């Protein structure tokens, strides 16, 4: 590990005329090196003939993610069962807690991306986050063991604590361990994907296609890890014990850490091309633009002409109020901003409408791990006389669908679309996202119809007031909505990943992927808020709420119809914003141009 001193995102110095000693026969020619890329010893990487990076390194990183997703899904997919089971929480409370955890786990990558892009670099952030991950999962395993001991040994009135409740310490220790996992995942998730995409040179036509394909295979790897976890861990947790159910993910994360470290010598490492903090560079634009808001560009003809030339090249004629950040002034504070800084700021601002209009999809996305699972728990899940499918294992249908559909998308759909449109990726990233959103609407309609059927079966068999009985309706009725979810994810989730990696400045790509994850996080929080509001509104006058603990008295079908309508509104807003979006083009002029 002693050779990793150059991997933090330190600013690359001004390029000297000769980057390697002339006597070094292995030194790549200056014109044949990858800009802003070094090996694990900090040496420049040749653009041709180098064995670093590419699919070999990317495959290693995908392997890391498979193990990490196995670990994460192993504790999160069945979390609602643990909360309503050993932790004795109500369905609505457990669903809200699950959504809050998922929301935090999806928002914390913003912090992890900030640390990586500003201070530690992606490699070090992944390394430290992985160590924290292993420790957090170890604590979670211990908390489950304590909970199991309490459930077995407590007496009805021992210390005034009921056997049906957890002690305050157990609750605190469990949730502290759980959110420690969220913090670790926040550092790991955005950086490892950006680090994987960094293994391809976006300026090379072939490697650019490979990078676009990487996002598809990356998500396939995630799905393999998740499907394995859903199938194995839900069975272990439901039929063996929760200590083992949380301990196995801890072992999987340890394996992920080992795989990542073993690939150290094969990776390409990105270095910043600017001495300034990338967040500070963008913040400076907004401060300078506000400071110069009453000034006119004509006060500096050089800035005006440079801006006009750069914008003609980049195609960024909107958000012109930020152009005033390039005007030089005698006021105190930061100096005038470069054209590159302004274009970076504009690129970030242009993402805001896409983020906002994707939130409804994120609310829908949150349902598969909460109410879909509880629906399945009430239905006939038997296979043969002695085996019942664990409710959380139903989520594996989403992952299986993704695993089956991604090769079709990558090897069949994209080549056909490429011939029609002439685009390297077949369709644009925003078109891909919009198609997935349309499919999510259909999935909600199907889910509502299936839930209506389930409630009718409960009425027909006189089981409405029976809280814990099995409804004589096969669980396979839920499969179509899971399959539609999986296909929608291939379009929307993978599209969002590629979009937020590609459309942010190079130095902020971890942040770009964190923004994508934050959409899912905010969606989980909004889902929790929506559940709380609907429960309060619908539970008056002695009537059960839409989310009654007795799902035979609940009305999840109404909730799904509501989400379908909201999704239609969200899709219309997204299409409007996507139609006016200007794709960011990489700036080619020198960053000191001003």
Automatic annotation (TrEMBL):
GO terms for molecular function: dipeptide transmembrane transporter activity; low-affinity nitrate transmembrane transporter activity; tripeptide transmembrane transporter activity. CDD domains: MFS_NPF5. It comes from the Eukaryota. Its main location: membrane. It is found in: Membrane. It is a multi-pass membrane protein. Pfam families: PTR2. One of its GO terms (cellular component) is plant-type vacuole membrane. The keyword Transmembrane helix applies. This is Protein NRT1/ PTR FAMILY 5.10-like. It comes from Stephania cephalantha. The lineage of its organism: Eukaryota, Viridiplantae, Streptophyta, Embryophyta, Tracheophyta.
């Amino acid at each position: 590990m002693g050779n990793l001193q150059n991997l933090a995102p330190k600013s690359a110095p001004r390029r000297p005329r000769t980057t390697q000693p002339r006597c070094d026969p292995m030194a790549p020619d200056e014109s044949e090196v990858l800009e802003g890329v070094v090996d694990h010893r900090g040496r420049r990487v040749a653009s041709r003939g180098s064995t670093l990076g590419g699919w070999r390194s990317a495959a290693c990183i995908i392997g890391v993610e498979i193990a990490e997703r196995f670990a994460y899904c192993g504790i999160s997919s069945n979390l609602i069962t643990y909360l309503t089971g050993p932790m004795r929480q109500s369905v609505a409370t457990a669903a809200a807690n699950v959504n809050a955890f998922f929301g935090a786990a999806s928002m914390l990558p913003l912090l992890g991306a900030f640390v990586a892009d500003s201070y530690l670099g992606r490699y070090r952030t992944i390394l430290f986050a992985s160590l924290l991950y292993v420790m957090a999962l170890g604590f979670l395993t211990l908390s489950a063991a304590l909970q199991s001991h309490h459930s077995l040994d407590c007496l009805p009135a021992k210390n005034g604590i009921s056997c049906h409740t957890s002690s305050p310490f157990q609750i605190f220790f469990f949730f502290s361990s759980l959110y420690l996992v969220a913090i670790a995942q926040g550092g790991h998730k955005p950086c490892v994907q950006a680090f994987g995409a960094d293994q391809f040179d976006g300026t090379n036509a072939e490697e650019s296609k490979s990078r676009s394909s990487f996002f598809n295979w990356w998500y396939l790897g995630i799905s393999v890890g998740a499907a394995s976890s859903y199938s194995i861990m839900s069975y272990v947790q439901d039929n063996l014990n929760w200590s083992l159910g949380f301990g196995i993910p801890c072992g999987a994360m340890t394996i992920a850490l080992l795989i990542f470290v073993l690939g150290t010598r094969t990776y390409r490492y990105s270095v910043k091309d600017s001495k300034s903090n990338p967040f500070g560079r963008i913040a400076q634009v907004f401060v300078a633009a506000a400071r110069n808001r009453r000034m006119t560009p004509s006060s500096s003809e050089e800035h005006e002409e440079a801006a006009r030339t750069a914008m003609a090249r980049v195609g960024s004629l909107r958000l012109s109020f930020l152009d005033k950040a390039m005007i030089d002034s005698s006021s105190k504070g930061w100096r005038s901003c470069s054209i590159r800084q302004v274009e970076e700021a504009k690129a970030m601002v242009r993402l805001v409408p896409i983020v906002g209009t994707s939130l409804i999809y994120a609310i829908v996305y949150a349902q598969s791990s909460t109410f879909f699972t509880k629906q399945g728990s009430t239905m006939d899940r038997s296979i043969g006389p002695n085996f019942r499918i664990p409710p959380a294992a139903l989520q594996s249908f989403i992952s299986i669908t993704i695993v089956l559909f991604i090769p079709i998308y990558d090897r069949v759909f994209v080549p056909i679309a490429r011939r029609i449109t002439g685009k390297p990726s077949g369709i644009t990233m925003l078109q891909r996202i919009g198609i997935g959103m349309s499919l999510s609407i259909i999935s909600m309609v199907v889910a509502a119809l299936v839930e209506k059927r389930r409630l009718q079966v409960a009425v027909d068999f006189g089981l409405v007031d029976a809280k814990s009985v099995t409804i004589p309706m096969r669980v396979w009725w839920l499969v179509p909505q899971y399959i539609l979810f999986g296909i929608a994810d291939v379009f929307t989730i993978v599209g969002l990943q590629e979009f937020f990696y590609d459309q942010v400045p190079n130095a902020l790509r971890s942040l770009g992927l964190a923004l994508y994850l934050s959409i899912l996080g905010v969606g989980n929080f909004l889902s929790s808020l929506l559940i709380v509001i609907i429960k309060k509104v619908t539970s008056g006058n002695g009537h059960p709420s839409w989310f009654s603990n007795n799902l035979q008295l609940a009305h999840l079908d109404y909730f799904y119809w509501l989400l379908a309508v909201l999704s239609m509104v969200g899709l219309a807003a997204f299409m409007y914003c996507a139609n006016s979006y200007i794709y960011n083009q990489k700036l080619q002029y020198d960053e000191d141009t001003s």
